[in-house]
């Protein structure tokens, strides 16, 4: 690659580098001018105080967005048009394209002439940078990728688009292998064609990505959010975009990507953040049952069982007059409304219809009541009494408390849906004294959310990105589906990495529970994990997800795998960590959860500085001790896995957990074991 320190730069290449550096300098200067111009704009033109505040905040955002980050290259690629007279026909809308375009994180233009110096990677025209290839050059002749160090342009790599195989990009490989410290980085300079197709899918389309470990699902989901916000800025700024991830440690890990792409207004949350954190646990078997979509029917029935037949009619006294509705009339009004709307609005409508009928009675007697009288009657004590008796005000907690504590009520609600054993499993052994003091599990939280939506509509966001979606129950997916009911979703996951008792077996089911129509795309080219390591981990694949295609790796990774039988994985992990720390990059020591304390003590007594990953904390130490159940979605340059057999034995889907754990390494994986390896992993070499 021209410009690399180990390769002498030829004179003509030196000239190219010098010209490109000059373009970088000109672009930086133009960006500075754009920023100065934006800083000089005044919000005084606003007509009123509120508009002025709004305008000021927009201008502040604009100025912040135009900041030049010295470490982030202003552009990372360039495309040269094919301008040969016998070159390809260019679509009319593209005929005014420049002969050369630079692609970067944002638009930069020359103030005087408005000439584009750098085009935003999300602009339609930039698509060619990611998609053009020798078989479809899209009207371009050459793609040039740039290498940067500390914001300085140091190298370039040319890919002619006029025929021939391009071969692997060294800039891409180096970008992947660049040692990691701290949170996840963006991949905007090296998004691959199949990833780009997902990133740029239309907003109304829900896309679902099945991707083997390290194929870039998370990265693609985040870049898609940035792309959608750029392309549909106004709509999505209003409706909102939300990223849902498995835990806080994961969210902390991905938190820097969107701000680096200029998007600071995207919410990130765990399912617990959205539905409420659990205050109790329960056996996986019960949680799995509560997570099934059948529970939605039980809940609907349970809620509507609260609407009772009226025993008495309604009598409203106004002045000296008494107005009556017979019990059968009240019953007819309730029956007409029952189940046709949400419970809460049905209740409000019931009160209004009762009041309306009273008004009809008044009119018959020659009175002329107006709408205000109808409201007064709807709020009057007699109507409220009927309302409480027939259509009581309910909270989700009241309904679920009753369902899980009252066997008779559960039987009625679950009739034809849950069998006797299932009902028995749901009932609390020792119910709390009331719904107020009840403790709720994670599965209960999804049930409460469903009930809440049956009572009052849940507002929808514009777009939802759901990562590690394979681990969500049907009821949790329904809860997320409500939050993008009028929008769309990007659903990311890997069936093989499903570790919950309710993990999805098919993406079609996931989309159904989410309530979204969508296409499923499969990514199988792994960027993170070297080939030797990926092949080793993939020995587990036939046992955890037999239908999935075997993943391939972009990098062969000779020498990346080291599997050792040791006398004591706890003490040997200290030595392995020390060896790994002698190399550049991050080190993750992934251990069975039950052994985490012992490993921490061993690292401490050896004086090895380290962090310990917790469910709520990221941790940016170079050496991180990672309990196996928290490793999902994360990656380290060097990974040491201690005692795979114990990781596999610790939970029902332990082999899937082991598959996750073995696929976290970017550069090297060291496996330390005293016990025999699980037979599925030992394979032929056992
Ligand atoms: N096009 C790319 N260019 C450079 N790096 C990439 C590219 N695609 C993915 N990567 C890198 O590969 C690694 C894995 O990506 P990511 O975490 O998004 O994968 P994933 O599919 O979500 O993995 P997992 O299922 O194991 O969590 C990251 O370091 C990411 O930056």
Automatic annotation (TrEMBL):
<dbReference type="InterPro" id="IPR014016">
    <property type="entry name" value="UvrD-like_ATP-bd"/>
</dbReference>
<dbReference type="GO" id="GO:0000725">
    <property type="term" value="P:recombinational repair"/>
</dbReference>
<keyword id="KW-0378">Hydrolase</keyword>
<feature type="binding site">
    <location>
        <begin position="211"/>
        <end position="218"/>
    </location>
    <ligand>
        <name>ATP</name>
    </ligand>
</feature>
<dbReference type="InterPro" id="IPR027417">
    <property type="entry name" value="P-loop_NTPase"/>
</dbReference>
<keyword id="KW-0347">Helicase</keyword>
<dbReference type="GO" id="GO:0005829">
    <property type="term" value="C:cytosol"/>
</dbReference>
<dbReference type="GO" id="GO:0003677">
    <property type="term" value="F:DNA binding"/>
</dbReference>
<feature type="domain" description="UvrD-like helicase ATP-binding">
    <location>
        <begin position="190"/>
        <end position="530"/>
    </location>
</feature>
<protein>
    <submittedName>
        <fullName>AAA family ATPase</fullName>
    </submittedName>
</protein>
<dbReference type="InterPro" id="IPR000212">
    <property type="entry name" value="DNA_helicase_UvrD/REP"/>
</dbReference>
<dbReference type="GO" id="GO:0016787">
    <property type="term" value="F:hydrolase activity"/>
</dbReference>
<keyword id="KW-0067">ATP-binding</keyword>
<dbReference type="GO" id="GO:0043138">
    <property type="term" value="F:3'-5' DNA helicase activity"/>
</dbReference>
<keyword id="KW-0547">Nucleotide-binding</keyword>
<dbReference type="GO" id="GO:0005524">
    <property type="term" value="F:ATP binding"/>
</dbReference>
């Amino acid at each position: 690659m021209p410009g690399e320190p180990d390769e002498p730069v030829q004179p003509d290449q030196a000239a190219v580098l010098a010209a490109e550096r000059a373009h970088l300098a000109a672009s930086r200067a133009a960006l500075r001018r754009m920023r100065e111009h934006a800083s000089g704009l005044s919000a005084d033109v606003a007509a009123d105080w509120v508009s002025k505040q709004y305008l000021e905040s927009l201008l502040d955002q604009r100025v912040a967005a135009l900041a030049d980050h010295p470490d982030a290259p202003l552009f990372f690629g360039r495309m040269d048009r094919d301008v040969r007279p016998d070159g390809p026909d260019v679509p009319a809308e593209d005929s005014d394209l420049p002969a050369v375009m630079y692609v970067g994180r944002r638009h930069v233009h020359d103030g005087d002439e408005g000439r584009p110096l750098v085009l935003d990677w999300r602009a339609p025209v930039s698509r060619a940078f990611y998609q053009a290839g020798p078989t479809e050059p899209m009207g371009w002749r050459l793609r040039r990728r740039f290498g940067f160090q500390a914001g300085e342009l140091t190298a370039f790599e040319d890919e002619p688009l006029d025929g021939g195989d391009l071969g692997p990009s060294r800039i891409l490989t180096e970008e992947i292998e660049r040692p990691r410290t701290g949170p996840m980085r963006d991949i905007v300079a090296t998004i691959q064609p199949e990833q780009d197709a997902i990133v740029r899918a239309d907003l109304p389309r829900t896309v679902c990505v099945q991707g083997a470990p390290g194929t870039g699902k998370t990265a693609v989901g985040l870049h898609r959010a940035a792309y959608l916000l750029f392309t549909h800025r106004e709509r999505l700024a209003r409706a909102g975009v939300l990223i849902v991830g498995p835990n806080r440690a994961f969210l902390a890990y991905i938190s820097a990507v969107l701000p680096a792409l200029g998007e600071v207004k995207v919410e990130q949350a765990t399912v617990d953040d959205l539905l409420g954190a659990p205050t109790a646990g329960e056996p996986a078997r019960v949680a799995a049952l509560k997570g099934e979509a059948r529970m939605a029917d039980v809940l609907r029935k349970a809620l509507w069982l609260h609407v009772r037949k009226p025993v008495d009619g309604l009598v409203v006294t106004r002045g000296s007059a008494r107005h009556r509705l017979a019990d059968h009339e009240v019953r007819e009004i309730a029956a007409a409304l029952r189940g046709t709307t949400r419970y809460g609005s049905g209740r409000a409508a019931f009160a209004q219809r009762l009041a309306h009928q009273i008004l009809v009675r008044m009119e018959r007697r020659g009175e002329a009541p107006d709408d205000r009288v109808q409201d007064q009657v709807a709020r009057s004590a007699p109507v409220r009494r009927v309302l409480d008796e027939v259509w009581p005000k309910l909270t989700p907690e009241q309904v679920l408390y009753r369902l899980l504590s009252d066997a008779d009520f559960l039987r009625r609600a679950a009739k034809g849906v849950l069998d006797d054993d299932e009902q028995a499993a749901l009932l609390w052994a020792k119910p709390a004294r009331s719904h107020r003091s009840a403790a709720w599990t994670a599965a209960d939280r999804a049930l409460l959310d469903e009930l809440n939506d049956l009572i009052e509509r849940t507002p929808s966001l514009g777009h939802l990105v759901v990562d590690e979606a394979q681990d969500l129950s049907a009821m949790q997916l329904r809860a997320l589906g409500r939050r993008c009911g009028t929008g769309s979703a990007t659903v990311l996951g890997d069936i093989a990495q499903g570790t919950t008792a309710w993990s999805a077996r098919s993406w079609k089911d996931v989309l159904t529970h989410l309530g979204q129509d969508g296409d499923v795309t499969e990514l199988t080219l792994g960027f993170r994990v070297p080939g030797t390591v990926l092949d080793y981990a993939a020995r587990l694949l036939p046992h955890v997800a037999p239908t999935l295609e075997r993943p391939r790796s972009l990098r062969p990774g000779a020498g990346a795998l080291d599997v050792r039988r040791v006398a004591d994985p706890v003490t040997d992990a200290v030595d392995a960590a020390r060896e790994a720390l002698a190399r550049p990059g991050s080190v993750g020591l992934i251990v069975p959860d039950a052994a985490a304390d012992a490993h921490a003590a061993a690292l401490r007594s050896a004086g090895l500085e380290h962090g310990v990953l917790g469910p709520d904390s990221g941790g940016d130490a170079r050496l991180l001790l990672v309990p196996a159940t928290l490793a999902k979605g994360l990656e380290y340059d060097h990974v040491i896995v201690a005692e795979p057999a114990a990781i596999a034995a610790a939970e029902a889907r332990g082999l899937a957990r082991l598959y996750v754990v073995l696929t976290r390494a970017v550069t090297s994986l060291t496996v330390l074991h005293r016990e025999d390896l699980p037979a599925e992993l030992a394979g032929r070499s056992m």
